[in-house]
Amino acid sequence: MRQLLVSDLDAALNALEGDRELLRRIVDLFLLQAPQLLEEVRESISRGDAPTLERAAHKLRGSVTNFVAKKTYDAAFRLESMGRDGDLTQAAAAQAELERAMGELQATLVEFSKDRA
Amino acid sequence: MKILIADDEDGTRLKLETLLAKLGYDVLVARDGAEAWELLQREDAPSLALLDWLMPGMDGVEVCRRVRQSSKVPYVYIVMLTVKGQKQDLVAGMEAGADDYLSKPFDVDELRVRLSAGERILSLQEDLRLQATHDDLTGVLNRGTVLDILHRELALVARKSVPVAIILADLDDFKQVNDQHGHAIGDTVLREAARRLATPMRPYDAIGRYGGEEFLIVLPGCGIESALVVAERIRCSVGKKPITTSAGDVPMTVSLGVAAVESAPPRGADELIQSADDALYRAKRGGRNRVEQSSNPDAPS
User: Is residue B300, in this structure, part of any structural domain at all?
Assistant: First the structure.
């Protein structure tokens, strides 16, 4: 169950009609871009730039929809809402949560990506 | 069928591109709204578009609004892509003229059914457009549409100094066909005559049913000389052999009046049609099955 919260890759695969190769390509693309996506979130929070945070968190949230990654999705959504409301007082806690969730997600996806069998 | 996808997020783009290609679509890809808008304005633009709501620069809703403002023909069916939890945005998107929306994450079945609903709407829309612009009986343009085209071409004469010619074509003694064989046979003859009238025309010429058995032909870029050549071809095309009907062969010929505008200041549509009509009258009086031209190509006769 804990694993499911990180990412449900079976569900992700089903949504792609079981196209494992396509999922792998999307995963590889995401792993390549994840550091940059996360960095944009971090930077906007440290600058107190709410509109940029909204956009960056939204983009991150959009890109993890492909992996049915609930924890990352929820954390990004919280930050996106804060950005939209222009209230970043709780952003540090939400950011910590996003970083943790992203770490787990990336680890899971790296495993999947390595498993070329 | 061509489809446009616009999303700034690489993973989603890759997913859509691959799935849509598998479903048999011809996929065009844009990375942002400006690129999408550019592709949608092209002559051979796709009539299905999947637009992401949030994109840097011009967002999906803005692209949607612009497409609707341009009242593009044929219709573009627009599906907005959103991430869950954007209800207000969704409402704004639909109000900007989107036809449907799809929430990420979506699966391939959802994508397939939404798009086939879109294709259904597009084909109904196209049927309606054809019905509204064409003559039921003969299948050529209706009077309103061919007159619109003439007005448009006359505006071009003023702006770009390209000539335009028109031909008024009237079937000879058509009333006798109706009187002798009844309206059903008359309809068959009209349909076949319209087909023969259109045969010698170029793809960008226009023909419309102007009255009962009278047709208006618009020849963009043609001066009086080339229009006379076209008219003569049309005359031969209609009269070369009788029209076969269930009541036997019906001989049919056509009389044609030709007029042209070669330079600015152009004549109005009414005036131009009047001089083609005068020429047509002379063709009728001169024995039918012949071509006459307006006496002075650039002034009312």
Answer: no
Q: Check CB contact under 8 Å for B10 and A33.
A: yes
Interface check for A113 against chain B (CB to CB < 8 A): the answer is: no
Please report, as a single letter, which amino acid is at residue A103. Answer: G
> What is the ipTM score, two decimals?
0.81
Task: Evaluate whether residue B215 is within a structural domain.
Answer: yes
Supply B191's token pair: 């349909």
Q: Hey, which bits of A1-117 come out as E strands?
A: none
Is B14 in contact with A29 (Cβ distance < 8 A)? yes
Catalytic (active-site) positions of B: 213
In CATH, what number is assigned to the domain containing residue B176? 3.30.70.270
Report the predicted TM-score, pTM, of the whole model to 2 decimal places.
0.71
What backbone torsions phi and psi does residue B92 show, to the nearest 5 degrees? -60, -40
B191 and B50 part of one domain? no
B100 or B72, greater pLDDT: B100
Closest residue of chain B to A28, computed from CA coordinates: B11
Q: Is residue B99 a contact partner of residue B79, using CB atoms and an 8 Å limit?
A: yes
